[in-house]
Amino acid sequence: MARILTGIQSSGKPHLGNIIGAIQPALRLSAQSNEPSFFFIADLHTLTSSRDAKKNKENTLQIAIAWLACGLDTNKDVFYLQSDVTEVCELAWILSCFTPFPMLANAHSFKDKSENLSMVSAGLFTYPVLMAADILLYDANIVPVGKDQKQHLEMTRDIAAAFNKQLGETFVLPEPFIQKEIMTIPGTDGRKMSKSYNNYINIFDEEKLLKKAVMSIVTDSTPLEQPKNPDTCNVFALYKLLAKPEQTQDLKEKYLEGNFGYGQAKTMLFELILEVFKKERESYDYLIKNQDFVQEELKKGASKAKEVSSKVLKRVRQKLGLRV
Ligand code: ADP
Ligand code: TRP
Question: 31, 149, 223, 242: which has the fewest C-beta neighbours closer than 10 Å?
Fold first, then answer.
């Protein structure tokens, strides 16, 4: 059986794009496997962009709750904080000794920021090595990620292959799992929904805030009475993602008929979000009031993760002649 593993950085609050684009597909994939999957919060990777203790703690908690509220089953799957399994740092160091400098210099994550080198930390530069360690430490076979992470998976495979070639079979070579049909979820301004653009919808926000975010979706200025084009409308694009086909058809007709304003469409979207994520929102409310439970789950997850990581690390240390 294949072992599934994926991580999400704790660099912000989880939004609708993260949930539809990453959390839900990973959980769906995991539900098809009897083996425990490994899901973690990449809080060490977050340090490459944020060193604010309070913010990092809060975001980590929010991401943890989002996974649990979306149905992660800690009885089956292993759910943990990257920083709780410190073996990952040791493996990252070892792997860095098998990583050619030009490979890292070619990484998009570094290149995008390399115009201003004084702003690039060694942590950002070696980000892909830590990610390789995240994956190789657990003998993961399948890694569901967004297409922006494809290069990181290729680098993981190259690093693992270099080690295996020099020292004999040690690491499992992971396969990325990139779902093409998962589209980029648009944000309130029509660009990709992203923490960095501040254009996101947080489905766990209290109703008033959630409504405010939905009402802020940018639309054109077609007057109320005129027919509207659903295919160019951000409200419709989000509605379509969550609605049943007959609900989508119904909204489409309303757009085409005219005498239907964007405000009404936004209200329908807001109500649909409340309906579709009812269970998740209830679960979130429970977990936010029971944070000790969340912390306990993460601790239990870390000790399960360590059972695997310590064995893999021992295998690696043996190959290198380090004391085991
Ligand atoms: P952000 O752009 O908000 O910083 P991240 O880069 O941390 O989001 O993404 C975490 C995960 O969520 C990744 O797997 C990514 O592919 C997915 N994701 C983020 N935004 C979207 C979106 N707008 N549509 C679909 N998937 C998304
Ligand atoms: N770099 C990934 C992202 O930004 C997060 C991540 C860290 C990850 N380690 C991982 C994803 C290991 C999959 C496997 O989305």
Answer: 223
Domains of the chain, by residue range, sit at: 5-184+291-320, 207-276
- Whether 113 is a known active-site residue: answer yes
Closest ligand to the CA of 149: 2
Confidence of residue 181 (pLDDT cuts 50, 70, 90): confident
| Catalytic residue selected from 13, 55, 76, 192 | 192
**The pTM of the whole model exceeds 0.90:** yes
**97-103 contacts, C-beta under 8 A, 24 or more apart:** 98/159, 98/162, 98/163, 98/166, 99/126, 99/128, 99/129, 99/132, 99/155, 99/159, 99/162, 103/128, 103/155, 103/158, 103/159
Whether 195 is catalytic: yes
What value does the mean pLDDT take over residues 83-110?
97
The average confidence (pLDDT) of the chain is: 96
CATH of 207-276, one of 1.20.58.340, 1.10.630.10, 1.10.240.10, 3.10.100.10: 1.10.240.10
